[in-house]
Specification:
alpha/beta, 2 domains, 7-stranded mixed sheet, binds zinc ion
Length: 301
């Protein structure tokens, strides 16, 4: 099953701490209306007020969607709109055609799930303590549909996330949260200068050399159980690369810690599977999550 595509493009350095990321008015207009004109001028007040006005204008036909989109913008600076129509090279999925789809009416639940997920990341990092070197706010967030297909469910590049309202992974609130954490990791990985390729390739390549695409051999190493239809684990599908492996280790960090903080049933810790898992986990925790690891130490092997 396909999940997302990571484009490796320009490498940028992390923003200095004093530069709080934000979506500016011009970008907000483009996210909401692409090249179209807004039905209201929205040109008075602060920039935040103007952007809130643009959001209200775009979602005017669905007041509940307008309320959710505005609340998310106010809380996290993320603006939710639509992806421009485009052809899309889906790699092993073939050629796809993507069209904009505003998340209103029957699609509103996706806006609400995505907004809930991004808000959940706020409380997650707050409860976790420490200082994560991780950005999940002020994103350029676009909804789309893939014509006659349910893939990709999402992709992420340049602090922008694209979300398929018919995505096969978006059937539940929990599915949306996990997938968005994974996508947001790709943005941070890119923001850290394609970190996973530099830091995790020695481990990843060693596993691939040992196992190839053999599911049984890969099972102890995969941070996520999702498989490509007719293929192997998504994280070890040839062509997907170390970035997917890294994003799913980050997702495991989120799901394991969230369960711990909420006193929910825990899964077997990824880091306790074998020494390669432990090393990869430690590197991700150190680079992105301020070294905070509340998962109990593993029993001696
Ligand atoms: Zn991915």
């Amino acid at each position: 099953m396909a999940r997302c595509l990571l484009f490796l493009v320009l490498v940028s350095q992390p923003a200095p701490a004093q530069d709080v990321p934000r979506v500016g008015r011009q970008l907000a207009h483009e996210i909401l209306f692409i090249t179209g004109k807004a039905p209201a001028p929205c040109d008075t007040g602060t920039e935040a007020e103007q952007i809130s006005c643009l959001i209200a204008a775009r979602y005017a036909k669905d007041p509940a969607a307008a309320k959710a989109a505005t609340a998310l913008y106010t809380a996290s600076g993320t603006v939710m709109g639509v992806l421009p129509e485009q052809d899309f090279d889906g790699g092993y999925r073939g050629r796809l055609h993507l069209i904009p789809q505003l998340p209103v009416g029957a699609h509103r639940k996706h806006l609400e799930w995505a907004a809930f997920a991004l808000t959940d990341f706020d409380s997650f990092f707050k409860d976790l303590g420490g200082t994560p070197n991780y950005r999940w706010r002020a994103l350029d967030f676009r909804f789309f549909e893939s014509v006659k297909r349910r893939t990709p469910s999402a992709y992420a590049v340049d602090w922008a996330v694209a979300y398929n309202v018919s995505g096969s992974l978006f059937g539940s609130e929990a599915g949306v949260r996990g997938t968005l954490f994974h996508e947001v990791f790709h943005l941070n990985d890119q923001g850290h200068g394609d970190w996973s390729r530099r830091a995790l390739s020695p481990i990843y390549d060693r596993i691939v050399k040992k196992c190839g695409v053999d599911v049984k051999c890969l099972t102890p190493y995969t941070p996520d159980s999702i498989k490509v239809r007719g293929g192997t684990y998504y994280d070890f599908q040839p062509g997907n690369g170390v970035g997917e492996y890294a994003a799913d280790i980050a997702r495991r960090y989120y799901t394991e810690h969230r369960a711990l903080l909420r006193k929910e049933k825990a899964v077997t810790p990824f880091k306790c599977g074998n020494p390669d898992n432990a090393k990869a986990w430690a590197l991700v925790v150190e680079e992105f999550f301020g070294g905070v690891d509340l998962i109990p130490a593993c029993a001696p092997r």
